[in-house]
Amino acid sequence: MDSKKLGKQLAVIILVIALFAGLDVAVYQLLIRRVISHHSPGMQKMSVEVADYVPFTGSENIFTAEDAERLEGDIPTIDGAAGLLPLYAGFVESIYPEDSVLYNGESYDASSKMHYTNTRGAYKDIVDGKCDLIICVQPSDEQIAYAAENGVEFEMVPIGYDAFVFIVNANNPVSDITTDQIRGIYSGRITNWSELGGKNMPIAAMHRNEGSGSQTALEKLMGDTPIVPDYTTLNGSPIGFSFRYYVTGMLAEGGVKMLAIDGVEPDIANIANGTYPVTSGIYAIYRKGETNENVYKAVDFMLSPEGQKIVEESGYVPVN
Amino acid sequence: MKDRTFGIILAVIAVIGIGVTTALLVYGYNLWKDISIVEMIANWGF
What we know:
The complex is a heterodimer.
Chain A: H1 2-35, H2 41-44, E1 78-80, H3 85-95, H4 118-128, E2 133-136, H5 141-149, E3 154-169, E4 176-177, H6 179-187, E5 203-205, H7 213-222, E6 237-243, H8 244-251, E7 256-258, E8 260-261, H9 268-272, E9 279-287, H10 293-303, H11 305-313, E10 317-318
Parallel strand pairs in A: 1-2, 4-8, 5-6
Antiparallel strand pairs in A: 2-9, 3-6, 3-7, 3-9, 3-10
Helix pairs in contact in A: 10-11
Chain B: H1 3-34, H2 37-43
């Protein structure tokens, strides 16, 4: 009788241990394995780290114009998108006075003429009057509505272009996709990679934060078609999106690849000649009726040959 | 095995198990806060 009881007790102990082990394996497979960074510090630098793009620190990541005329007087506060930080850091280092940029090692001081609050913060701050000039892709409908509610209209000057790219795991056999298929995936009509010529594996459609530049670009691409909720599956293989600049640094180490769209690769030549179908404008944006002349001088510089060279050297496609 | 001993063993296993799982979740959450969408795609699916 005792040995039977002991056997049951041991079975319960083994079962409980197995349950916890199974739970931990699931946590590892579903969470930790996906979020461990395998990229080298060198590659990680290619994604945007604020400290690597602080003007006047001798950063090799910032491209500048040597002999540009510096602004004097009322210096406009500039802000912008994360993916465009290299660009406006280059503009600031080229034409802003050095003492107008105040970085405390972790963030920009409130009195600094350069800020970094990303797309959502930048659009809010220009409406609220906390900054005068932002470098972003087009605003979302909510950002336009927020501006209208506060009596602000945006003046948007195109200064460059970048490709809106869709990325998948490098081992995914699918390399080409159509714009209609993208709409199918993000509307929930296409749910398996086999429908695109890939493996029989569910598609996890990843999103960005509401109001981010790339999420807004997806919403514009989808038009009136409703977008499915984020992460439509925990298994399977994901598709995500970003801007080309953000992604290209990661490609060299493998792990991801950008998809050709409608048979066209998202490279500089195809963006410049207009054959890549989903490019996104990069804009210098200020309030309509702006009275600070330095805002116009800064935008003029961005459109000048020196400014456009910074656009190109920073990895984007110039407008001129 | 006495019921009391059995209960203590189960309790110890449960405490260790919950502790390890919680530690893994906290560790994963901290990694998740810093990882880019690009790296997440690189790690997921194949």
